Amino acid sequence: MSLDVAQLRGLRQPDARSCGPSALVAARMLLDGRTVSRDEFGARVLALHRDVTSVAGAGLPWPRALGTPPWGAARRLAAWTGTRHRTRVNRWRHLSPEACGRAEPVLVYVGSRWLPRHVLLVAQERVYDPARGTVAPAYDGRWRTTWLVVEPTGSR
Q: This protein's superkingdom (predicted)?
């Protein structure tokens, strides 16, 4: 992973419901060590969104209104890295030091007290927010209530 998370600045999700695929495409960029143009980023996000949220890609029921199913994101990350990923419930907690300190990309589902509303990418102790196209220190963000963390298990 030779690409610095800071290079994700300015890449924004192309629509209101594509934060999950945007975080996944950003993770892929980090893993590959390559940047893409804003137009290419948007095109990749929309293509991945269709794939990850399709009935065949989801595996288990997940309300489409909630966006990207976490197990779909875990499967995609596992395919790209060769390492299994798990979805861990992290409800009512802030981002953990374990999630923030990893070199590998971690997806964090955040939201309100009532339900998950957004997906962030955490890597290199920083958070990429696809809605804003910003990168901030891991503990500095407007989304404080985490619901789920999609992270590598360490096994292949």
A: Bacteria
* Sign of the Cα pseudo-torsion (64, 66, 72, 77, in order): positive
pTM (global) more than 0.85:
yes
* Collapsed DSSP state (helix, strand, coil) of residue 106: strand
| Cβ density class 84-97: b for 16+ within 10 Å, e for less | ebebbebeeebbbe
Spatial contact of 71 and 59, defined as CB atoms under 8 Å apart: yes
Beta bridge partners of 137: 126
Query: CA geometry: angle at 70 spanning 142 and 134, to 5°?
Result: 30
Residue 8 scores a pLDDT above 60: yes
Euclidean distance between CA atoms 109 and 150, whole angstroms:
8
Quick: pLDDT tens for 125-155: 889 999 999 998 876 666 668 888 999 987 6
Residues 78, 10: Cα–Cα separation, whole Å: 26
